[in-house]
Amino acid sequence: MKYEPTGHEDEEAVLQEWFTAHGITEVECLVTDLTGILKGKIMPARKYLNGGRPRLPDSIFIQTVTGGYPDDEDSRFWNPAEQDMELIPDTSAVYLVPWAEDPTAQIIHDCYYLNGDPVELSPRYVLKRVLALYAARGWKPVVAPEAEFYLVKTNKDSDYPLEPPIGRSGRQESSRQSYSIDAVNEFDPLFEEMYDYCEAMGLDLDTLIHEEGAGQMEVNFEHGDPLALADQVVMFKRTLRETALRHGMYGTFMAKPMAYQPGSSMHIHQSLVDVETGKNLFADEDGRASTLFRNFIGGLQTYIPSAMPFFAPNVNSYRRLMRSETSGSAPINVEWGFDNRTVGLRVPVSDAAGTRVENRLAGADANPYLVMAASLACGYLGMMAQIEPRPPAVGSAWKGGNTLPDDIGPALNALHSCKPLADILGERFVKSYLAVKRAEHREYFQVISSWEREHLLLRV
What we know:
The chain is of the alpha+beta class. It has helices spanning about 10-20, 45-50, 125-135, 180-185, 190-200, 225-245, 290-310, 315-320, 370-385, 410-415, 420-425, 425-445, 450-455, and strands at about 25-30, 40-45, 55, 85-95, 105-115, 140-155, 205-210, 215-220, 250, 265-275, 335-340, 345, 355-360. The strands form two sheets. Strands 6, 7, 8, 9, 10, 11, 12 and 13 form an eight-stranded mixed sheet that branches. Strands 2-1-5-4-3 form a five-stranded mixed sheet, sandwiched between helices. A hairpin with a 7-residue loop joins strand 4 (about 85-95) and strand 5. The longest helix is centred in the middle third of the chain and has 21 residues, at about 225-245. About 45% of the residues are buried. Belongs to the glutamine synthetase family. One of its GO terms (molecular function) is glutamine synthetase activity.
């Protein structure tokens, strides 16, 4: 997948036309790191259009969430020269910055070394790598993400717990308001502006609902191409956080931001169509679940436990996946079932064309490129090996207990031992990801929590 500059002039023409139509004066050149944080440069539009391709060091892909780097021992495979990457725009991922005072574009870029080789540590490239395996067989995955988030009061001191925000009524939510329209309407000014921004950016939002937690909401996206929708989830996260700040509160995608409240997920609905016919390959002619569908689920069941660092990438992520009275409907295993929200892999009721599986394991804090890449990789391995799934769960799947890693440490060990996933996602990428996440885990353990001071300081 070496970058070929063929059509470069066409790309320039497309950008020139779009910039002229919107009066663009400034460009935000964006790249998503392993954590999902947007990195990049800001350039004048005129310079950008006149061949000003920005560059960044490839070390942004081994940077931790705190801005640090793995120890030398963990990154022996890494090239210490910190090579330059050239950022190449994807003309299908060009958006306005609707809140900017001056007309500004934000463009998602792919990363290539100066010799034309792709940067295999880029999360966007990892997803492209997996999609290429499907394309080689004439298959096209279709996904529909659902992103949950919390609105919370601004909190300038991280030692204090988060609280629900105050709505139009002047009151905080004090109880769960699942699916309540009035609870959503408490924040009408914020959501009206959010939808205006999303419409200006061309994001394919579907529905907005109030979720189980106090101040917790969910936005659903229309189904479509995995790469395009991963781009949109990244853009939506940025948009929601910006809109919330403009209304005096925070929008957070932490997996478990508040104790005694449910966590936030990023469910991914997945189906598979034939490129030539457009037929859903997860259903047979008679409308029943196909062999490919069963094998896809078998692959998810087999490999998701090893892929959990992509679905639950942070220490906080595993608080969401613990079964308790306040965990909501978060799954704790990889059982599957029809129209069953207690399973990790839910099959909604649908006609043959809509046959799909909903992966409910990922947290809202995960990188959407890596969530989709990992989920599709697990399913692909299942289809290639013709793995049969276990029988579907009937009733509560929670009674089966937690069969997933219960912390980031065991999860990283499981990923380290899974060669099939490394072969698909890229061995160098997986090693880099493990190094970054282990560095974050070590840094977390240097912080003493308030629980430890409360219960251990004077008692042990």
